[in-house]
Specification:
Elements lengths: L4 H12 L21 H18 L4 H8 L3 H15 L4 H14 L3 H6 L2 H8 L6 H16 L8 H7 L5 H12 L8 H10 L9 H14 L5 H14 L18 H17 L5 H4 L4 H4 L31 E12 L7 E6 L10 E2 L2 E4 L5 H16 L9 E9 L3 E12 L11 E5 H6 L4 H9 L8 E2 L12 H13 L1
Helix pairs in contact: 1-14, 2-13, 3-4, 4-5, 4-10, 9-10, 10-13, 11-12, 11-13, 19-20
This protein binds iron/sulfur cluster (SF4).
The site of iron/sulfur cluster (SF4) has 14 residues, from helix 11 and helix 14.
Length: about 475
């Protein structure tokens, strides 16, 4: 399945070696989970860095890290990139990063921005508290640290909100040249495969072991490049599914790869009935697994998974299921452009401070009549006016998956004829379609826009005596959002 000219050499090399030693201590891991030979460490560094120098992607934050002479700007730029890259793919981050750095090229510029502007810029990137933390961090740097970004891993960790162990190590090594390993999701996968670490990768014992390995392996001359090379390897070669072992620069060091090869050899010998006593005496990682080792696999090996037997993760909790009634309320705008009613979410919790269509959480299934009644009551608190249930049009359901919530929006729409309809609360506003597209709204709200339709058949109602101006169809707006969303 995974075969290259390196395999045989690696397997032979491994067979020639003395079997890795088992330990009897409950606290000590089996020695094959470590890199005990300094020559192997030196070799791995050079193989990985040679590969990285040839294969690395040109990314805007890498360019800044390599070329920006001002350490304060460099640290700020890498910090922004690392926060954006948490939980988000490089391809998505690139454009956001470029726009962000163009608008706020220094930490002082970011501190001068408002949270609303930051939320606007972040809209669509997800995990919105990250933008808020960056803004808080910039304010802290400017007000408490005289505008100077922290210059060590420890101070990054202690002084910047939202900066954890990984982010501090990544920024410290990439921007400041500090010699420290950095362990993110990609690195966890690579290291677990390299050293056949099969225990729960979220456990404290595995976490500490991985940080120990990363600190052993990191190249003291090029710590930032080494850490980025490990991450790049995990993102492009040692991928969660379908890893490209035949193209892997560190394959000769990989226990998972060797194990697959040995297993295949054993299986084919078994098939041929040739598994001699001598061959079966070959030490396999499985045979060496210790019940007392906190890093050895706790689950049996699955042939079909190959190297993907590593790492091992606990089963994910199923997401919470929520249903939200939501209403797209439109009115003719003063400038001829249709306007939409939006309400701001609380400043804490999920999607803090973002704007959304009015709505409310519901439990269980509700009839359409019950839904309209509930939305009438909700809109009354915002508009101070009673809308009869017959004015609502049921649109449909939109599903949006957050990290831990399976959200279903049950969408209704109302098209008002009165351009003077006012909001009664401070946290609501009318936005034109162009303003809405620029506003701090979540992807879920955009999905509601895209999936909704307020066709020409929609009922247009009038709250006061004012005549409506031109009534635009919501569908034209949704079309525009769809194009933006899919680009
Ligand atoms: Fe490389 Fe494959 Fe080992 Fe990953 S599993 S480190 S891609 S040889």
């Amino acid at each position: 399945m995974f075969y290259s000219p390196h395999v045989e050499a690696a397997a032979k090399h491994w067979r020639r070696r003395d079997p890795p030693k088992k330990t009897s201590s409950a606290a000590s891991p089996c020695t094959y989970h470590t890199f005990s030979d300094p020559a192997h460490v030196v070799l791995l560094r050079s193989q990985l860095l040679n590969w990285y120098d040839k294969e690395k992607r040109e990314l805007p934050w890498r360019t800044v890290a390599e070329t920006e002479p001002d350490v304060n700007i460099r640290t700020y730029a890498v910090w922004v990139s690392e926060i954006m890259l948490q939980q988000t793919q490089v391809a998505t981050v690139r454009d956001y990063y470029n726009r962000w750095m163009k608008r706020w090229p220094t930490v002082q510029d970011l501190a001068d921005a408002t949270l609303e502007e930051v939320n606007q810029m972040w809209a669509g990137l997800g995990y919105y508290s990250r933008g808020k933390r960056l803004h808080e961090g910039a304010l802290k740097v400017v007000t408490e640290l005289r505008g100077q970004m922290p210059q060590t891993v420890d101070s990054l960790l202690k002084q910047l909100p939202g900066v954890g162990r990984y982010t501090a190590a990544a920024v410290g090594s990439i921007a400041l040249g500090q010699v420290t390993g950095a362990v993110d999701g990609n690195v966890i996968r690579v290291l677990c495969r390299l050293r056949a670490i099969g225990a729960d990768s979220t456990s404290a014992a595995v976490t500490e072991a991985l940080w120990g390995l990363a600190n052993t392996l990191v190249d003291p001359e090029r710590p930032g490049d080494f850490n980025q090379a490990m991450m790049e390897l995990g993102a492009r070669v040692c991928t969660p599914k379908g890893p490209l072992c035949s193209q892997c620069p560190v394959q000769p060091h990989c226990h998972a790869f060797r194990k697959v090869h040995v297993k295949q050899e054993q299986n084919s010998k078994k098939l041929l009935g040739k598994l001699s006593r001598k061959a079966s005496a070959l030490p396999d990682i499985e045979d060496l697994s210790s019940e007392t080792c906190q890093l050895c696999p706790s689950e049996p090996w699955v042939d079909e998974l190959g190297v993907q037997n590593f790492p091992s993760k606990p089963a994910k909790k199923p997401p919470r299921v929520e249903r939200t009634l939501t209403c797209v309320v439109a009115r003719p705008g003063q400038q001829g452009e249709e306007e939409y009613l939006l309400r701001q979410r609380p400043n804490k919790g999920l999607l803090a401070g973002l704007w959304e269509f009015p709505g409310l959480l519901v439990e269980g299934e509700n009839s359409e009549v019950q839904q309209k009644r509930a939305l009438c009551a909700e809109l009354r608190t915002i508009l101070g006016t009673h809308l009869t249930e017959s004015l609502f049009q049921y649109v449909g359901e939109v599903v949006h998956i957050f990290s831990h919530i399976h959200q279903t929006y049950v969408v209704h729409s109302v098209c008002l004829k009165d351009s003077d309809t006012q909001t009664q609360t401070g946290n609501a506003q009318w936005l034109t379609r162009s303003a809405l597209q620029e506003a701090a709204v979540s992807t879920g709200v955009k999905k509601v826009c895209v999936s909704s339709t307020c066709t020409q058949k929609s009922k247009k109602i009038k709250l006061s005596g004012a005549k409506s101006s031109r009534q635009l169809s919501l569908s034209s707006f949704f079309k525009t959002v769809k194009e933006e969303s899919s680009s």
